[in-house]
Structures are given as structure tokens and as C-alpha cells.
Amino acid sequence: MKNESKRLMIAVIVGMLLCLFVSGPGLAADTIKLGVAGAHSGDLASYGIPSIRAAKLVVDEINAKGGVLGKQVEVLTEDDVCKPEVATNTATKLISKKVDVVLGHICSGATKAAMGIYKDSKIVVMSPSATNPDLTQSGDYPNFYRTIASDDAQAKLDVDFALDVLKLKKIAVIHDKGDYGKGFAEFAKKFLEESGKAEVVLFEGVTPGAVDYSAVVQKIKQNDAEAVIFGGYHPEASKIVTQMRKKRMKTIFISDDGVKDDTFIKVAGKYAEGVYASGPKDTSKNPLNIKAVKAHKDKYGEAHGAFYENAYTATIALLNAIEKAGSTDYDAISKALKTEWVETPIGKIRFDDRGDAIGAGFSVYQVQDGKYVELK
Fold it and tell me: For residue 221, what is the enclosing H or E element?
């Protein structure tokens, strides 16, 4: 009886150990977990939803071919509504789900708020759209990468266009007070002042979400600004442009990739005509880009939206790095991102020591007949 009890006890212990092995840490290794964070609802969802779709399309194709390192890839999404105060919780949720890497966030302010949390957990994060220079240039976030050029490069492009192509002399610089919009505007102001070619007649922030921007529109008019350079997103830009045009102001409107979105055109309607905005270079003739765009059209039956190609690229880059690294180890992934070139919809890229994509860049676009057209 004693021997029988001993055998029974051993069997129970072995069974418990097997259960622990199957349901514990081993389970996390059954799939490669890709977190996708961004604005998946709210006013800026048109920037975040394309990233979810891009990730799922890439993952579906990779999984059909056997996955990464012989494992299937799992997509886990969390919404931050592009708000910094929500983004910290979003990051915490993804870490609790044991994600291996993260695609996101979308807005620079939300990204900054979340990065410390990912850094402490040694999670590589790659954004398709967060352009604030400090994210890579400050050295505070060695785990951060992006597939889009930074605001300083974008602001320089817009300022050079305003000065050298449009030959403007009096410019108002307006922003939405956020990390992204204000950062872009400050660079624009700096480059304008350094050029000596034009006067910054007004530098002012507006409150996001306000119904009426007539006060700042009036200041733009009173200062005889030939143009506005605006740093921010489409909800505010569309209202400012609309109010300017209703006052019969012909002031040129130049903005950033936060406005280079079809939603801006839909909201501003006829008043969007002629607006300039910088955005990622047109790579629509790239074979991988053609393939990615077609995949979206076939799956969702509509245009792919803002930052889709950059998100598609980020997903490929992250999963390629894991494959090349041979593991989900943080240091190994980081090394692979900086040393391994990969073909993507935006071209052949790898990342520099700061985390910026070598090969990514911006172009200036203009709304013509209801569509953004790249200016050569």
C-alpha cells in the first residue's frame, strides 16, 4: 500500500509538472506575438486602422508559408485613441499579453508616453507614422524604430518648398500644441528664420477639438500672411482652411503628413482644393507596393488609407528581423534591424543606429480635383 501511494504521489507530481510546462511559459513560445497599438477609434482612427489591416495582411501571408521560425504569428491589437494618457495603459496591456514586438504607436505624443514602458520590458517598437525627432534623436528610446522620416526633415522640405518654389515672404506658423504638431511647427519656424528669406509674422498654437478657429484665422488675416504652415492633424486643419476660405482668404495652406490624408479632403470638401501637405514619398510603382495595395483592395474593397505602406513595411521589417535573429531576443532583433536590408513596399531599407529607416523620405503633395497629387 505504501509503494502504491508513493507511485500515485509521483504520478500526480509529474502530471502537475507537465501541466505547468504546457500551460505556463511554454505557451508564450507557441506563437510569435505582434502587438499593434494606435488610434483604432475616435477622430484619428483613419490613421490607425490601416496599420491593423497591414499587419494582418502581412501576417496572413507569412503564416500561410509556415510562419516565422516555424511558428505562427499572432496579431494582438490595443487602442490608444492617439492620446498619451491612454497610451501608457495600452502599452501595459500589450506587455501583459507577452508580445514579442510592437507595431505602433501612431501619434508622436502617444508614442512618447508609451516608450518608457516598452523600454523597461525590452520590447522593440516600430512606428509607421510617429515623426517627432526626439523619439530617435534624444537617445532616450534605443528600442524605438520608425519607417517614416522625422519632423525636422519634413519641416525642412515644406519650408524649402514655400521659399524656393512658392517664393513666399510672409508666413504664419500655426500648431495644435501637441508633441507632433508643435514640434513640426518649431522646426518650420527655425528653418524660416535661419533662411533670412521670409518673415514669420505669427507663431501660435490652437486648441485641438475646438469648434471655432476664427480668432487665429483673423490674426492670420491681420498679419497679411501669404501662407500658413500648420503643424497638426486633419480635424483642426480642415476647420481652419474652411473658415479661411469662407472669409474669402486666398492664403496658401501648407501642412504635414498629419493632414496628408483623404479624411481631410472629405471633411474640408471643396475648401481642400489647392492645399499642400508633405507625406511619405509615392512608391506606388514599387512591385511590393502594388502587391500590398492590391491585397488591401481585395480584402477590404476600399482605399488603404494613411501610413498603410509604412505599417506594411514595419510589419515585414519586424518579422524579418526575428527570422534573421533566430529568436525573439531583444538584442538579437535590434542587431538584425540595423544590419539586415529588407525589401518592402517603400523600398529596400534597414535602420541606422538611432532607429530611423535608411531609404525613407517625404514629398510635397497638393490637393488637385479632390485628390492628393505628388509634386515632382
Answer: helix 214-222
> Is 323 a domain residue?
yes
Q: What Å distances lie between residue 296 and 79, 291, 374, CA to CA? A: 21, 9, 22
Residues 111, 166, single domain; the answer is: no
Task: Specify whether 57 is located in the same domain as 41.
Answer: yes
Residue 103, SS3 per DSSP: strand
Are both 108 and 35 inside the same structural domain? yes
- In CATH, what number is assigned to the domain containing residue 290? 3.40.50.2300
Domain enclosing residue 164, as ranges: 152-256
**Is residue 161 located within the same domain as residue 144?**
no
Put residue 373 in one of left, alpha, beta given phi > 0 → left and psi -120 to 50 → alpha.
Answer: beta
Q: Is the four-CA dihedral 93, 97, 101, 102 of positive or negative sign?
A: negative
Residues 6 or more apart whose Cβ sits within 8 Å of residue 365: 260, 276, 277, 278, 279, 372, 373, 374, 375
| Residue pointed to by grid coordinates 497638426 | 232
Q: What angle do CA 272, 278, 284 make, to 5 degrees?
A: 100
Give how far the C-alpha of residue 307 lies from the chain's centroid of Cα atoms, to the nearest Å: 7
Q: Nearest CA to 250 among 270, 230, 221?
A: 221
Count Cα neighbours of 283 within 13 Å in the Cβ-side half-sphere: 27
29: confidence class by pLDDT, cuts 50, 70, 90: low
Structure confidence by residue, pLDDT tens digits, 179-237:
999 999 999 999 999 999 999 999 999 999 999 999 999 999 999 999 999 999 999 99
Helices (DSSP H) in 142-200: which residue ranges?
151-160, 179-195
Those residues with Cβ within 8 angstroms of residue 124's Cβ, 6 or more apart along the chain or in another chain: 101, 102, 143, 145, 318, 321, 330, 333, 334, 337
Query: Residues 319, 320, 321, 327: is their CA dihedral positive or negative?
Result: positive
Is residue 264 in a domain?
no
Three-state DSSP state, 56: helix
pTM of the full structure:
0.83
3-state secondary structure of 169: coil
Supply φ then ψ for residue 282, to 5 degrees. -70, 115
Alpha-carbon distance values, 275 to 81, 104, 238, 278 (Å): 26, 28, 10, 10
